[in-house]
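TASK: fixed-backbone design
INPUT:
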């Protein structure tokens, strides 16, 4: 029996995911969490074999949660299941210790394939992501400048490029306006840019935001 925990801040999505998983007699959903801190609290209290982790959660986001989990529970298998396309967060998630990354738009069959593979000790990535990972291993030459950003800075960059104000971002991430403003300043410095328009143009060019929304 594979014991699974679901971490996502949308209750309806958690409920639907639980229904899919519990159709399989060898899978057991032992807990749910709606924030990064809840994930940490529950993992300390009970053992699970696999965590299904969303990237975008209030307060401590998925990548920060993953980083803490891998520090204290290095053997815990984590499959990141996110609304964001692979181009935005997959490589960062895998580098942080995830065993796999799939989007929420994926079919339930792909989800089950990923869970089976990871449960057996493997890794799960799509063919296109595997190709990007190979290119990433070739070295730092021509690596895009956004790779130098921290995970939080990268998240703020994507939100700025999506048209959110500093106040909007602060509210969404449960941070102070001052903290978000500091992140913005550091992003501009690291990327050698002057304003939000330049950041947005860069994000569009490198497909860091989804223009279909």
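OUTPUT:
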């Amino acid at each position: 029996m594979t014991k699974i925990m679901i971490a996502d801040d949308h209750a309806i999505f958690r409920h639907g995911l639980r229904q899919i998983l519990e159709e399989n007699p060898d899978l057991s959903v032992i807990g749910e969490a709606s924030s990064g801190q809840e994930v940490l609290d529950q993992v300390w209290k009970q053992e699970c074999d696999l965590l299904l982790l969303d990237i975008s959660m209030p307060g401590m986001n998925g990548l920060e949660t993953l980083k803490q989990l891998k520090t204290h529970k290095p053997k815990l298998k984590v499959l990141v299941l996110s609304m964001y396309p692979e181009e935005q967060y997959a490589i960062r998630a895998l580098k942080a210790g995830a065993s796999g990354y799939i989007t929420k738009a994926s079919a339930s069959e792909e989800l089950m394939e990923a869970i089976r593979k990871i449960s057996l000790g493997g890794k799960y990535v799509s063919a296109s992501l595997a190709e990007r990972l190979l290119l990433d291993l070739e070295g730092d030459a021509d690596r895009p400048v956004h790779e130098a950003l921290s995970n939080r800075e990268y998240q703020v960059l994507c939100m700025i490029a999506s048209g959110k104000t500093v106040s909007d971002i602060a509210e969404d991430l449960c941070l102070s306006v001052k903290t978000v403003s500091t992140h913005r300043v550091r992003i501009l410095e690291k990327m050698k840019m002057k304003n939000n328009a330049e950041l947005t143009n860069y994000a569009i060019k490198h497909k860091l935001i989804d223009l279909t929304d």
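COMMENT: The radius of gyration is 17 Å.
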